[in-house]
Amino acid sequence: MRGFFSASLILAAFGFWAVGGVSLRGENVLPVETIVPSQTGVLLLPPVDTEPWAKDVLAQRQFVVRRRLQYEFLSRQFKLYGETLALPAAHRAPSVDLADPTARTAANLDRLARRTGADWVVSVNVQEVKDDPASAPGPNPPPFHCHCLVKLKVWDASRRGWLAWGACLGHDEGGTSLPVFLFMESIDDAAKNAARTVVGAYPAVVPLSDIAQTSDYLAGQTEPFIGKPGVTFAGLQPK
Fold first, then answer.
1. Is the distance from CB of 44 to CB of 86 less than 8 angstroms?
2. Dmax of the chain from CA atoms?
3. How far, in Å, CA of 232 to CA of 239, rounded?
4. Is the pTM of this model over 0.70?
């Protein structure tokens, strides 16, 4: 989790980030409670992206965030509800506009949880993807580095409160790749850090195949999915 602890300390200093306590700015967050992942239903909403350049690479960014969220929850054997189940639930009256981050309120996330039967509803909004100041061009430019800031919301419908609410930061891994790939690395890192604020205490027990074999592990989903410990999951095979 490269860069996570230093990033979280910086964010906490400005009152942005808290999990398992009370956030310094925004919403109260529920105290930590131990759960059984396989008995906890998690609804993953489609990622939203409000960063100015998102329109040019929206599909690629959504793929990165979706893949990371699915990986973190599936590998820990949570009972997962993917986007295929989220969309019809959102279309029921009164509808919830999943493309509008301001519509992801406590009331609407609770409504989606009740419609699907999920215990938790997870929302991630990419808010900033930017090169670091030290990467500015010059006569002897340093290696290029970048970061991503995401807003994480996790609604606990069973306890009627926020399990997580705040910002999480991610960085590229620092290589020689083109900036476009480093930006994607920073998005993946931010999504990973966000997910692990909630699931990090639980061991990964379900191996997953390389994402290159599928763009969505839960494509075509018709019912909640729980992986089997020790059995590699390569994605659903819709009938």
1. yes
2. 59
3. 20
4. yes
Chain segment 28-59, per-residue pLDDT in tens: 899 888 999 999 999 999 999 999 888 888 89
CA-based nearest residue to 43, from 175, 153, 196: 153
The number of CA neighbours under 13 Å toward the Cβ of 216 is 18
| Beta pairing partners, 146 | 131
Burial of 133 (0-12, 13-18, 19+ CB in 10 A): exposed
How confident is the model at residue 8, as a pLDDT? Answer: 38
Could you list the beta-strand ranges (E) of the chain. Answer: 41-44, 48-49, 79-81, 120-131, 146-156, 161-171
Whole-angstrom distance, CA of residue 127 vs CA of residue 130: 10
Amino acid at 91: H
| Identity of the amino acid at 63 | F
Count, in order, helices (H) and strands (E) of the chain.
5, 6
CA atoms of 71 and 210, how far apart (whole Å): 10
Compute the distance between CA of residue 11 and CA of residue 21 in angstroms, rounded to an integer. 15
Query: Which two three-digit tokens encode residue 115?
Result: 């419609």
CA 184/CA 190 separation, integer angstroms: 10
Task: Summarize pLDDT for 125-171 with one digit per residue, the tens.
Answer: 999 998 887 655 556 666 778 889 999 999 999 999 999 999 999 98
User: Which is nearest to 115 in space by CA: 123, 107, 125?
Assistant: 107
The single-letter DSSP state of residue 75 is T
How far apart are the C-alpha atoms of 23 and 35, rounded to whole Å?
22
